[in-house]
Amino acid sequence: MTLRRKISVWLVALVMLFVVIPFTGIYFAQGAFVFPVPEGENPRAAVAGFEPLSLTTPDGETLRTFYHPPAEEGAASILVFHGNAETAAAAIPRGGSLVAAGFGVLLAEYRGYGGSTGTPSEAGLITDGLTAYDYLRAQGNAPIGILAFSLGTGAALPVAAARETFAVVLEAPPTSLLDIARYRVGWVPFDFLMKYPFHNDRVIAEVDAPILIIHGDNDQVIPVEQGRRLATLAGPGSAYIEIKGAGHNNLAQYGTTAMALSFFRKSLAAE
After folding, report:
1. Do 224 and 159 share a structural domain?
2. Angstrom distance (rounded) from CA 262 to CA 256
3. Are residues 13 and 48 in the same domain?
């Protein structure tokens, strides 16, 4: 073997060892990082007035959601998308506040979460959200709004773009998971490595409904700059609230449910 060929072989081996193999591992293993599914199943009995509701997606998965009808026939309903590393059951307290205000509430669940069947993916979560929306629409022609937190915004915005909604509230939304990866790692070429990019920044302009974005300026998970950027891309009637001192997981402690309720009521009144 000539010296030139030996060098070529070593270069190929080094590329495989330090580039191809690690990046391939990142690509195929990222599901565990993007969708850290918590252990346990959602309760199968009524909780705080919410009835367990099983929905079947077009591709055959079973979603364990929770539903509470509106106080009056014809009243609006809110479709709630929870964040990552939690299940629909975690949104019951917030859903209860919406119910107390007279709204119907469906707490969406994702495949692989809370005892639902299937494996989570970006396309799968969007399908799950559409399935939940279509269930609400099948109950009648009453207005439907959306409330979503963190990762849930990545499923909620495509649903809002594809279906009619009267208002959308996004709490701590990322511009994309690609931008989060860049924020955390920086130099790695994640453009081709991201299997689930969740491009909120590309979808938000397709939503016709007014959008409220709420973000904490001390968010260490999804930088506040991403919420600010999304606010510049939202359509007419949209609004942005930045909460001083609020982080990511404690955002709801700053009264965001009341802010969402106010926005929903204002949007309904404007219809």
Report:
1. yes
2. 10
3. no
Q: Are 11 and 54 members of one domain?
A: no
- Structure-token pair, residue 151: 């990762």
**Edge-first strand listing for the sheet containing 51-56:** 51-56, 62-68, 104-107, 77-81, 144-149, 168-171, 211-216, 239-243
State whether 21 and 79 are in the same domain.
no
Same domain as 13, residue 82? no
DSSP output for 102-163: T-EEEE---TTSTT-SS---HHHHHHHHHHHHHHHHHT-S--EEEEEETTHHHHHHHHHHHS
Has residue 19 got a pLDDT over 80?
Answer: no
Tokens of 80: 């709630």
Q: How many structural domains comprise the chain?
A: 2
Query: Where residue 182 falls among pLDDT bands split at 50, 70, 90?
Result: confident
Q: What is the pTM of this model?
A: 0.88
Q: Do 77 and 1 fall into the same domain?
A: no
Helix (H) or strand (E) holding 93: helix 92-100
**Per-residue confidence at 25, pLDDT binned at 50, 70, 90?**
very low
Query: Which pLDDT band, with edges at 50, 70 and 90, does 126 fall under?
Result: very high
Say whether both 26 and 92 belong to one domain: no
**Buried/exposed 106-116: b ≥16 CB within 10 Å, e otherwise:** bbbbbbbbbbb
Per-residue pLDDT tens for 214-263?
999 999 999 999 999 999 999 999 999 999 999 999 999 999 999 999 99
Domain limits for position 224: 40-270
* Residue of 155, 128, 127, 140 whose CA lies nearest to 77: 140
